[in-house]
């Protein structure tokens, strides 16, 4: 399989970009599937799929949220001779009521995608990470960190935030090593933190004051709408935070240890590294 490129969909995203970097560091040929690639890949344009899959035997799949396109893409991949698939899924796929309402179809994306992978002909590995630590440095919490206030309706709910570098390392192990076929790796960090505790770790790492301000749900959505968010998007964001508020992401998972033989990176280490890398620059 070493003569064939490894396909990474979502190869410019939080996890996919790290998978690409690790594979290249280890000398593997990588094909990054994205709309901005030289050979364009677009989940919603099936005419771009064959070029992306040509010659591929292994692939890391980051699904397109809110769609069930993973299944037909895997079927096309099987036609091209793909032999190994690593699927990025999500925590809570097998937990009834994890997302009480799902207007964006994220749950269906993962449920259908996992079912398609397990029913396919390729060797498969499924990754189910919890909340990314990088949500604070690259994702939807970053602007709040920069403002100094995480104004979120999650109360004292905690999450065992997982470093995207660990997710990528597990993915690369599953792509390039034996012994991972048929495994579902639930991925978390080594401890659960409330938003107040996460803010305190970032404050320590950066020297800037960051605090969590608990908000009632109605005030949270009203503030987003006042910032220009469509009401439906504000409600969708609120719903996505519900598992955190209900304590459904507090538990620790052993996937990093099982896959890599080491403990996952702690949130404090993530915060220090992100601060050194300039994730939260000081105000001018």
Automatic annotation (TrEMBL):
Protein name as annotated: NAD(P)H-binding protein
Q: What residues does the NAD(P)-binding domain cover?
A: 10-177
The UniProt transmembrane annotation reads none
Instruction: Name the species this protein comes from.
Output: Streptomyces johnsoniae
């Amino acid at each position: 399989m070493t003569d064939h490129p490894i396909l990474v969909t979502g190869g410019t995203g939080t996890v996919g970009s790290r998978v690409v970097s690790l594979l290249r560091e280890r000398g593997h040929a990588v094909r990054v599937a994205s709309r901005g690639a030289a050979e364009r890949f677009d989940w919603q344009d099936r005419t771009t799929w064959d070029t992306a899959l040509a010659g591929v035997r292994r692939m890391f799949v980051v699904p397109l949220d809110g769609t069930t396109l993973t299944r037909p893409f895997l079927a096309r991949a099987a036609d091209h001779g793909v032999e190994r698939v690593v699927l990025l899924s999500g925590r809570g796929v097998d937990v009834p009521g994890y997302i009480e309402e799902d207007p964006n179809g994220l749950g269906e994306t993962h449920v259908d995608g996992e079912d398609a992978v397990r029913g396919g002909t390729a060797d498969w590995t499924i990754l189910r990470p919890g909340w990314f630590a990088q949500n604070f440095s690259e994702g939807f919490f970053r602007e709040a960190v920069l403002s100094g206030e995480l104004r979120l309706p999650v109360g004292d709910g905690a999450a065992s935030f997982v470093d995207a570098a660990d997710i990528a390392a597990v993915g690369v192990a599953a792509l390039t090593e034996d012994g991972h076929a048929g495994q579902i790796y639930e991925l978390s960090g080594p401890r659960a933190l409330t938003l107040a505790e996460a803010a305190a770790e970032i404050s320590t790492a950066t020297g800037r004051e960051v605090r969590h301000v608990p908000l009632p749900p109605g005030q949270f959505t009203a503030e987003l709408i006042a910032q220009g968010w469509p009401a439906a998007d504000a409600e969708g964001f609120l719903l996505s935070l519900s598992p955190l508020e209900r304590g459904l992401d507090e538990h620790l998972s052993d996937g990093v240890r099982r896959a890599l033989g080491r403990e996952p990176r702690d949130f404090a280490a993530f915060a220090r590294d992100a601060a050194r890398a300039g994730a939260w620059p000081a105000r001018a």
